[in-house]
Specification:
The chain is of the alpha/beta class. The chain contains 6 helices and 13 strands. The protein has a domain of about 60 residues. A 6-stranded mixed beta sheet has the order 5-6-7-3-8-9, with helices on both faces. Helix 5 links the parallel strand 6 and strand 7. It holds the Pfam family ABC_tran.
């Protein structure tokens, strides 16, 4: 678990405080959103959580295996997309073979496999962003920090990132994110905060419900361990639509992902979300 104790951050010995007296706890399985106006210190908070910046005051305890997607990813690196991801996998301690396999898997997941041998400097902004997200997932982080990571992605890649986030959380990881779309993962968020002034303020959790569309081979029974609050219905295509209070969505996802039968999760969203 990552914990902030009265953390402050300012730039320069006499500079103004960007954040001050911040307390934050991110236990395993937390999906936490940070909101706030531009320039209030959201990115500074995320950089502190990711270990990129050090606090000027207070302390941060715990250091889970952490990955970070910055607001701006530097594309002018002397690698192809695949070469860059493989190199980072080696830095993370993966074998060359494992690094290559994971690089291909994540590029494919975000629709960028065809660009694997393209130099980073020649990629479009959207494809560079897919590489930025992929590099954060190589080592299966215990804490994933996302600073506007959806910006620049196409609709399919945004959906894929939504799914990856919910999978990581269901598997016990924590995710801390900022996004300009207030609907982003709205029904699945388990903790919400706002940066105001130099403070981090906890927002009250709502009672939103989450819809999870999943599919299994015909005849597959519902998995054990479903939360009792969950309801479900099957449509003619074989998809099962589960609906559950947001507070219990992690338990539902965990039951589906760890079931003996092969359940495939298509989408996670609030029931009222508009089709994209």
């Amino acid at each position: 678990m990552l914990t902030f104790h009265q953390v402050g951050r300012r730039y320069g010995l006499g500079g103004p405080w960007v954040l001050r007296g911040v307390g934050l706890a991110l236990p395993a399985g937390t999906l936490a959103r940070v909101a706030g106006a531009n320039g209030t210190g959201k990115s500074t908070l995320l950089r502190l959580a990711a270990g990129i910046d050090a606090p000027s005051a207070g302390r941060i305890e715990g250091r889970p295996r952490t990955a970070y997607v910055p607001e701006r990813f530097p594309p002018a690196l002397p690698f192809t997309a695949h070469g860059y991801l493989t190199h980072l996998g080696r830095v993370h301690g993966l074998s060359r073979r494992t690094a290559r396999v994971r690089a291909e898997r994540w590029l494919d997941r975000f629709g960028a496999r065809a660009h694997g041998e393209t130099p980073l400097a020649e990629l479009s902004k959207g494809t560079v962003q897919k590489v930025a997200v992929a590099q954060a997932l190589l080592a299966e982080p215990e804490l994933l920090v996302l600073d506007e990571a959806w910006t620049g992605l196409d609709a399919e890649a945004r959906d894929a990132l939504d799914e990856v986030v919910t999978e990581r959380v269901a598997g016990g990881a924590s995710v801390l994110f900022v996004d300009h779309d207030p609907r982003r993962l709205a029904g699945a968020v388990s903790a919400a905060y706002e940066v105001s002034g130099t403070s981090l303020i906890a927002a009250e959790r709502g009672t939103a419900r989450v819809r999870i569309d999943a599919e299994a081979p015909p005849g597959t029974k519902l998995p054990d361990g479903l939360p009792p609050e969950a309801t479900h219905e099957r449509d003619p295509s074989g998809t099962v639509r589960f609906t559950v209070p947001a507070a219990h969505s992690d338990a539902l996802l965990r039951a589906l992902l760890t079931a003996a039968g092969p359940w495939h999760i298509h989408r996670v969203r609030p029931p009222a979300a508009r089709e994209r």
